[in-house]
Design goal:
There is one protein chain. By secondary structure, this protein is mostly helical. It folds into 2 domains: 93 residues, RNA polymerase sigma factor, region 2, helix turn helix motif (Rna Polymerase Sigma Factor, Chain: A, Orthogonal Bundle), CATH 1.10.1740; 83 residues, Orthogonal Bundle (Arc Repressor Mutant, subunit A). 81% of the residues lie in helices and 0% in strands. It has 8 helices and no strands. Helix 7 packs across helix 8. 21% of the residues are buried.
Amino acid sequence: MTETEILAEAQVQEDIGLIQRISERDSRAYQAFYEKYSGLIYASISNVLNDHHDTEDVMQEVLVQLWNKAHLYEPRKGKPLTWLTTMARNRAIDRIRSKQRRSKLNDDFEIENKGVQPEFDESGHELLVSKERDSILLRAVSKLNPDQKEAIELAYFSGLTQAEVAERLREPLGTVKARIRRGVNRLETLVKAKLV
């Protein structure tokens, strides 16, 4: 081994030790790991999101995840820094997908309701129409079966990713995806029926 390889290996072993101590709730080890790698983690999130506010939010989520999930780290699967930057990148991608889903649901709902709003409506009337649409959507959500309703509310109203919904509900990801898909299809049917 070269001197550089020896130093790199020592660095990895030090990081593994920090992760182990973090898993035992050692706040000094957490602080040391944070000081050492927070800039790199922030940069890896920012490269995906390209948005300061979202990057800070995801950074916070990743740091909480580091504290809560350090015990899940397995040295044989990779270096601590690789584990953490992968976690950060995945969180950032989840944030993008979550925003896209919320945006699509809003866009779909707006497109469905364009016929209800002629261009010359006054703002007071538009406000009433908007409240009526919100009311229709809430009534439609209340008619979903409890499993679909819970999954839809967590994904679209609480802004969780499907993976986070699955974790929260302690259900397989495929089950949650199916519930959300069926729930959205049912909502579409219910909302169209109200607007016709």
